[in-house]
Write a structure and sequence with these properties.
Structural class: alpha/beta
Strand content: 5-15%
Strand order of the largest sheet: 1-9-8-7-6-5-4-3-2
Number of domains: 1
Distance between the termini: 48 Å
Number of strands: 9
Oligomer: single chain
Length: 302
């Protein structure tokens, strides 16, 4: 299926009110602000979207709202992950019915699987999804890496597997994907998951980044992408330094979902910062650390 994504695609957090109910007003304001920015698309119901703490019916309702709000103005990827192959297929089929452009699927994250079972899991999804499928590799959370060999096999055997978000703290893994998978299949898309690997990924031939910081400071990652396209590497380096400062925020609370929402609020968008239990909104100490980081990165004034 012809789908070509490039650039900056924010993994959008899901907005909830104080009672942990979906907040369509807050979610709509966030989507509208991102639509007005330079971001190149959207990922809903990924890690930042708290898919893992939502039952299926709520995921489907949230996906339908988000796709409808974007209304075709930019490409939309919907997270369709589950530990059960059948449920991934059904979520993918739902995403197709509501008008999404692609689905993203992290590998099952409870029981480890043999490489052959991982292959069969993704192949079955690809053969039954009406939408292009992007793989999502996040071994820090799933406990299992998607090897370059596995990704290459899937890319060769499954035309509907069109790319990967590679959230790894190892640039050599991304480099191997670019040269050994994308090098064989040029339409296969490689996105870095960690913000600060964005420019390195682009420089070696990757396609972009899926960075949570673009939810509240899209001018930084979008500015890097623009500078890369224009070969203004001085500007890219200055912005990359700011992005490296911002990336410290991921370590001040675990999980980081509440921190992202608080950063969005501090940057001027009126949204609740509720995160679904067992996560929570940041406490005062964490909020103070976040504020310091935002000031140091030049996102907020003193």
């Amino acid at each position: 299926m012809a789908l070509q994504l490039k650039g900056v695609i924010p993994p959008v957090p899901t907005i909830f009110d104080a009672q942990e109910r979906f907040d369509p007003q807050g979610m709509g304001r966030l989507i509208d602000r991102l639509l007005a920015s330079e971001v190149d698309g959207f990922l809903f119901l990924g890690s930042a979207g708290e898919f893992a703490t939502l039952p299926r019916e709520r995921r489907e309702a949230i996906a339908e709202f988000c796709v409808g709000r974007v209304a075709g103005k930019k490409p939309v990827i919907v997270g369709a992950a589950s530990c059960a192959t059948r449920e991934v297929i059904e979520l993918s089929q739902h995403a197709g019915r509501i008008g999404a452009d692609a689905v993203m699927v992290v590998n099952p994250y409870y029981a480890k699987l043999s490489e052959e079972r991982l292959y069969r899991h993704y192949r079955q999804i690809a053969e039954n999804s009406p939408l292009p499928v992007l793989l999502y590799n996040f071994p820090l959370l799933t406990g299992q890496d998607l090897s370059v060999e596995l990704v290459g096999r899937l890319a060769a055997d499954c035309p509907n597997v069109v790319g990967i978000k590679d959230t790894v703290d190892c640039m050599s893994h991304i480099r191997r994907l670019v040269f050994e998978v994308k090098g064989v299949r040029p339409d296969f898309m490689v996105f870095s998951g960690f913000d600060e690997y964005m420019l390195d990924t682009l420089m070696i031939g990757g396609d972009g980044v899926i960075p949570a910081t673009s939810n509240f400071a899209p001018e930084i990652t979008c500015g890097i992408y623009r500078a890369f396209r224009e070969q203004d590497f001085g500007a890219a380096q200055r912005l990359l330094t700011r992005l490296a400062i911002l990336s410290r925020m991921y370590a001040i609370d675990v999980p980081f979902t509440g921190v992202i929402k608080e950063a969005i609020r501090l940057c001027g968008l009126d949204i609740p910062t509720t995160a679904l239990a067992p996560a929570s909104a940041p406490d005062d100490a964490t909020r103070g650390k976040l504020l310091d980081i935002l000031v140091q990165a030049g996102v907020l004034g003193e």
